[in-house]
Design goal:
homodimer, alpha+beta, Glutaredoxin, 8% strand, globular
Chain lengths: 230, 230
């Protein structure tokens, strides 16, 4: 069956969307192969058929599923005999809290820290859109945000604290093996890794060590697109 | 078998510890009865036998378990045939993230908002200890924190956002029924409810509505100690 994942790309094959990485990893976890269709922010006509304006969009035969959370639930329900993403219903409902916390707390803290670097790596066609949209969202210019990187990085440290403490106690967010929880958080860190030389995590940190294990999964899937090495 | 929960109390039977409420609710979820032994902050000699300086401590026959997370795991492992707190291993590992996030992000945001009210409701014997310990922790006087209540409440709103969004989509953090995840977050809200007239949650909010359902659990267990009605 033909299966396509429409995902966001920047310059030089930088696939930086944290949401698309959640889905990439979830598909690999289920052992399901997929073709990637790379799109810019401003190529939304490519996914207009889905009714969504956001990436990722998964097309599988006649099925069209937009939104990374819905895709994860779709994969779990459609392929119950393949390795579970959630480890049961309790796990699925709890993963939704992590999903929501990551969207509303972790992602903004990361974006504030690396937004200038994202801006440097998007396609030329997206430059105008990105500046207008993000400056309106943050009520600051991109240059002002760039100049605040150091203090923003300090705030990000606070946001990372609960992740750090959990990973001191268990190897994966899912417990003894990676689960969709791990892919949610990994997407957030693969995003800066794709576009920014700024080390949002550093060695001698439980989050950094866990990220190294994540990069090694599925034949180093996370190394298969352009990224910074740190 | 004799079973005793050593828990923190303030004036007038105000059982305000969020950690003790996690355990109270977990015991009720398992259908396990317990005697409560109320202690002040400065009565730690009462729990010296446990090797812990913090409440709650559960004593069950010869077993002594300190720390609300360890107690939850102990109850789940000791009573596997009673209703599950975690809904499986995946759920347990994910609950640990919520536990850690609540300890490190939600609790400080709540405490900064209501610390003066906590101070008004602790036992006289604890006043000196509480002021010295909390002022050192926050590097501010209690009076200065009191005067910032409004701006602190605004920051708390941001911290509550992921909880609010999850509860717009599902009735309980555990999914279709309450689980330990619900007790973790409920403890955080029963704490201000026990000592503060300041409404940290208000009607027409998914968190408020969920809290009302939580208060109704186990024959209104959360109404069995002195509290503010809002």
């Amino acid at each position: 069956m033909k299966r396509t994942l429409y995902e966001l790309t920047g310059k030089d094959d930088r696939r930086f969307s944290p949401y698309c990485w959640r889905t990439r990893m979830a598909l690999a976890h289920k052992g399901i192969s997929v073709d990637y269709e790379a799109c810019c922010f401003t190529e939304k006509d490519k996914i207009a058929f889905s009714g969504s304006e956001k990436y990722p969009v998964l097309v599988e035969g006649d099925e069209i599923v937009a939104d990374s959370w819905k895709i994860a639930c779709y994969l779990e329900d459609t392929y119950p005999d393949k390795p579970s993403l959630f480890g049961g219903d309790g796990g699925r409902h709890m993963a939704y809290f992590l999903n929501t916390w990551t969207d509303t707390q972790l992602h903004p803290a990361i974006l504030r820290t690396i937004i200038w670097d994202v801006f440097q790596h998007i396609n030329d066609a997206d430059i105008e859109y990105f500046r207008a949209d993000r400056e309106a969202r943050f009520k600051q210019t991109l240059e002002a945000l760039r100049d605040e990187q150091e203090s923003r990085a300090e705030e990000l440290e606070k946001t990372l604290l609960p992740l750090r403490l959990v990973l001191k106690k268990q190897a994966w967010f899912g417990g003894n093996a990676p689960s969709y929880d791990d892919y949610i958080v990994f997407g957030a860190l693969q995003w800066p890794r794709s576009v920014s030389p700024f080390p949002v995590v550093k060695p001698d940190d439980s989050v950094y060590e866990w990220r190294s294990r994540m990069i090694g999964l599925f034949d180093n899937l996370a190394d298969s697109t352009t990224h910074y090495d740190y």
